[in-house]
Design goal:
Belongs to the acetyltransferase Eis family. Keywords: Acyltransferase, Transferase. With 406 residues, the chain is an alpha+beta fold. It has three domains: 122 residues, Aminopeptidase (3-Layer(aba) Sandwich), CATH 3.40.630; 160 residues, 3-Layer(aba) Sandwich (Aminopeptidase); 94 residues, SCP2 sterol-binding domain (Nonspecific Lipid-transfer Protein, Chain A). It is 24% helix and 33% strand. The strands form three sheets. Strands 1-2-3-4-13-5-12-11-8-7-6 form an eleven-stranded mixed β-sheet. The longest helix has 16 residues. The two termini are 29 Å apart.
């Protein structure tokens, strides 16, 4: 067995086959080409045994919206180990090396990922930074407020002709929603790719556009899936994403999505935990919401990461951090900041709070409450009152939310 090597671009087919095996999928040539287009071989690590690919990890080069800023973040992905090579330390070796390389490159103070299983990544310092609501509910009889005079017009089309305006609106809204990743041209290709093998019997993807007084101010990507019961139609509306820059656009989009003829169900697997829809429908329980994990954040460079985001209120606190995998993060850091900027420097002053790097990742996007982590023993309050004084600054006016699985 060889040590992990940086693969070549033409190793992708073999890597794709390994991922298909590990995640129990079928080979889909169309999907493989879509994924090949965003693959960055120079950011991947591949382990072979006798010439056969047996373990792999990679990262995408993207930016992540964080409270008040957009920060370069390694989007960790494509992590897999062949069933024949489990329990040999291959995953541990890959994750440790990847973190070290991200840190030493000095370009990305964060790493972020989706976890196939929540128990895997905390041991590498990843903390659950953003949760999501999975909606799978009934729409029959569900009511929304009546239209307002300020609502604009709705149009329905295929997404491709509107790609440029969708991208502009997405980037505009992304600035105010921690957890959304920046999309360059390659990533818009990926997001809008409509692989037939992944539709599960549903229609092609459609886009619903809302035009306000100043042009496009909302859109929704969705499909429908036909279904009939003995009592009549039971089709489902499968919502992929809803992006709105104005409340009127958001309301108009959802009013149509929840009332399409012959449909009786809706699904939306990446709703935000503060999704406005729950404040609009007359019976929220009918949405069938279930809480799930979403983005896991690993702070790779503690002072750089803490200085990169903004804070809801003024803050001046010393935090003692421990990091077994990246000892450069261990120590006492003084964070001074507020809504307009922040700085974080090493200090010998007494710490008011103490935590490991995993807890720092959980707090980073503003979604995890500091008092809850203190109550769980995950953050220690060394000076009484420090947590209560610091908690408002670490939060944000929008909950962190995912927008896509990468």
């Amino acid at each position: 067995m060889t040590d992990a090597l940086v693969p070549r671009a033409d190793d992708f087919d073999e890597i794709s086959a390994l991922l298909t095996l590990a995640f129990h999928g079928d080979v889909d040539p169309e999907l493989r080409e879509v994924e090949r287009a965003v693959f960055e071989p120079e950011r991947a690590l591949l382990v072979r045994d006798g010439g056969t690919a047996v373990a792999h990890a990679a990262a995408f080069t993207r930016e992540l919206a964080v409270p008040g800023a957009s920060v370069p973040a390694a989007h960790v992905t494509m992590v897999s180990v062949a069933p024949t090579h489990r329990r040999r330390g291959l995953l541990t070796g890959l994750m440790r090396r990847q973190l070290r390389e991200i840190h030493d490159a000095g370009r990305e103070p964060l790493a972020v990922l989706w976890a196939s299983e929540g128990r895997i990544y905390p041991r590498f310092g990843y903390g659950l930074a953003a949760q999501r609501l999975v909606l799978a509910g009934d729409t029959a009889g569900l009511r929304l407020p009546d239209p307002t005079p300020a609502e604009g017009t709705l149009r329905l089309d295929r997404p491709a002709p509107h790609r440029a305006e969708l991208a502009r609106l997405y980037e505009r809204v992304r600035a105010d929603r921690p957890g959304w990743s920046r999309r360059d041209e390659r990533w818009w290709d990926y997001v809008l790719a409509d692989v037939k093998g992944l539709r599960g019997g549903a229609t092609e993807r459609r886009v619903l556009l809302h035009e306000g007084p100043d042009g496009l101010d909302g859109y929704a990507l969705y499909r429908t899936k036909e279904d009939w019961a003995g009592t009549g139609p039971r089709a489902e509306v499968q919502v992929g994403e809803v992006v709105a820059a104005a409340p009127e656009a958001y309301l108009a989009l959802w009013r149509l999505l929840l009332s399409i003829d012959l449909t009786r169900r809706v699904s939306f697997p990446i709703a935000a935990v503060d999704e406005p829809l729950f404040r609009l429908v007359d019976e929220p329980r009918q949405l069938g919401a279930r809480l799930a994990d979403a983005l896991w954040v690993r702070v790779v460079d503690a002072p750089a990461a803490l200085a990169a985001r903004r804070y809801a209120t003024d803050v001046d606190v010393v935090v003692e951090v421990t990091d077994d995998l990246l000892p450069e993060n261990s120590g006492r850091w003084r964070l001074v900041g507020g809504p307009s900027g922040a700085e974080c420097t090493a200090t010998s002053a007494p710490a008011g709070l103490a935590c490991d790097v995993r807890a720092l990742g959980e707090l980073y996007l503003g979604g995890a409450g500091l008092p809850a982590l203190v109550a769980a023993g995950r953050v220690r309050e060394l000076v009484p009152g420090t947590a209560a004084a610091t908690a408002p600054a670490l939060g944000w006016h929008r909950a962190p939310a995912p927008m896509e699985v990468f």
